[in-house]
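quick one
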Amino acid sequence: MSKSAVSKLLTTEEDATSDRPQLASTRASDFNVVLPELDDAVSDLLRLAVPHEDIDAILACLPVLQEPGPLRWLLERCVHELTQCMDHPRIGPRFPTFPNQGKPVRRYFYVFVFLAMLPHLRKLHRQRGIPEHVSWLTLTDLGRRVAAHRRFHGVGGLRDPSWLVHHFTGTLYQLGRLQFQRATLDKRLGPSIARAGMPDRPGDPCLSVHIPDYCGPLSPQACDASFAAAREFFAKHFPGELYRIAVCGSWLLDTQLAEYLRTDSNIVQFQRRFTIRTFPANDHTILRFVFGTDETDLDELPRRTTLEHAIVDHLKAGRHWRAGSGWLAL
Ligand SMILES: CC(C)(COP(=O)(O)OP(=O)(O)OC[C@H]1O[C@@H](n2cnc3c(N)ncnc32)[C@H](O)[C@@H]1OP(=O)(O)O)[C@@H](O)C(=O)NCCC(=O)NCCS
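structure w/ coenzyme A:
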């Protein structure tokens, strides 16, 4: 397919993309890209924690992706690109984006890319000796992103598929309450880590910590267990990679939150684990994660919890939220 045909595929009347792919020059895979048959697809979707209300709509799209056609063409290129990134902690390919209100087959398109990736990833997990329960717990993030699409856009789809590239190329694992991504230290935390006398420098391996939603409170006990599990897990399954540092970039690490939350709240206790550097104002991130919206009419936002009150009061006072980035020694 030519570049202009790819552009056309992605810019039909209904669909436009801000992220023009270079996929026209990507070769097709040198292996057969296989999508599961209907029954197996149901089992896979359930194991990936896809919400029940989305399953029939996804299955209805399956025949389109099984037959030759433009979307099948794109699917094969995406799967090929992903398999090229397997097991390497680096930035994955940038895929085209579809509008979040388009046809179902486009909103759910990347669910099929990841279904087709499952056999490749599961083979890698087996080669690395990853326990079954860790493998499947990690992959339930796909269902979480389907739930997030509905929460944000009011219709089914897969929100932010590029996030799942980490999981489906074997660089991110959920260990209990937290997710750990094989990553490298960036420059911003370098001086603070050096001042603490650690030998790690920008570019060295580190684990990037993420906090999945829909997983209950961020209790200190659950976090202790996750960090302990991470130390053991990566030493055992990635013996060639030395992880001494964990980093985290999140709205949860904005130290201003401690002005509003109790000192024994889980968020404040989580912050205390890290040496934190905060970044310039960024109100959108906290609004998105806490309220699931970009809504800026403060009077429209719910104020049920201490955190929700704090976010609104802070903004009403003319102040701004920031993202924090922190590190800790494992
Ligand atoms: C991380 C998370 C589990 C923390 O929740 P927690 O363990 O209850 O945290 P705390 O104990 O510190 O909560 C303190 C207060 O803030 C409230 N709060 C915490 N997270 C909240 C959220 N996402 N939405 C609304 N209120 C929240 C709590 O209910 C509590 O208020 P209360 O005392 O009035 O009941 C929760 O914020 C969450 O699930 N977030 C979504 C995932 C996320 O944002 N990940 C980070 C991505 S960068």
